Amino acid sequence: MRYDVIIVGGGASGLYCALTLASAQGRGWEWAENRRYLILDTGRSDMNRALFNNVPGIPMGTKGRELLDRIREQIKFYGGVDFLEEEVVEISGRKGEFKIRTKGGREIEGDYVVLASGFHRFDIECEGVEVVENPRSPKPGRVMVKHDGNFKVRDGLFVAGLLAGVSSMFTIASGTGVQVAIDILSEWAGKPIVIHDVPEED
Ligand SMILES: Cc1cc2nc3c(=O)[nH]c(=O)nc-3n(C[C@H](O)[C@H](O)[C@H](O)COP(=O)(O)OP(=O)(O)OC[C@H]3O[C@@H](n4cnc5c(N)ncnc54)[C@H](O)[C@@H]3O)c2cc1C
User: Fold this and answer.
1) Is the predicted pLDDT of residue 3 greater than 80, yes or no?
2) CATH number for the domain including 179?
3) How far is the CA of 170 from the centre of ligand 1 (A)?
């Protein structure tokens, strides 16, 4: 199957990216309809080990594991997003014709790719990706992928979350996923967009 956007990593930033992309549907925007999105994930998000007391609006004492499930459910509400538990090992090609190869031997095609695989390592074979030490990690040995300052690695290829070199705080990591999604949607729209809902009149 072919996807409009393939997200590598289904932790905080990957899920928020997918949620924002999916939430663009059903608003009368022709360019947002009938899009297909894919999250490839190995299930090792840092959220699995976290207990959240300082995430705004999230009840104190929420386990990261519970929040992962809740965000996945929220994404399913909008639809259009497939989930695949597979490790990505190679990304080739360019915007409009990316090819992803998984450890299990699958080959998947996509127009855009978002790297959201966390800061523990980056061993995916991918042309044009420069991996450096993560300057905001309190622990040594964490990595980031260089980008243009706006999360773009090269045309069609974005990076989000800790792999983009931001601090390891849930809202910061997830916010970069949202920004990348909005930037992709804005490219499709041909102008800057935001996705806002308002309450119905009382
Ligand atoms: C113990 C702990 C406690 C924390 N507590 C807090 C807190 O109290 N408050 C707070 O704000 N933040 C907290 N955090 C930080 C927060 O969890 C992270 O900042 C956030 O999860 C980072 O999001 P991410 O998307 O960059 O990476 P992750 O959430 O780690 O997601 C990366 C995903 O990519 C997947 N992946 C990796 N390689 C591949 C591949 N090749 N193919 C496919 N998938 C791949 C991984 O399996 C993982 O699911 C805590 C973190 C930890 C570890």
Assistant:
1) yes
2) 3.50.50.60
3) 8
129 in any annotated domain: yes
With respect to residue 14, please indicate whether it lies within any of the assigned structural domains. Answer: yes
Give the number of domains in the chain.
Answer: 1
Whether the pLDDT of residue 164 is over 90: the answer is yes
Ligand 1: residues with CB < 6 A are 8-14, 40-47, 49-50, 52, 54-55, 64, 87-88, 116-118, 124, 161-162, 168-170, 173
What is the pLDDT of the chain when averaged over all its residues? Answer: 97
For residue 154, being part of any structural domain is answered with yes
Would you state the pLDDT for residue 202?
Answer: 65
Cα distance between the two ends of the chain? 44
Count the neighbouring beta carbons within 10 Å of the beta carbon of residue 81: 22
Inside any domain, residue 194: no
| pTM for this prediction | 0.98
Q: What is the pLDDT of residue 111?
A: 98
Distances (CA, A) of 141 to 97, 131, 135, 136, 160: 33, 11, 10, 11, 18
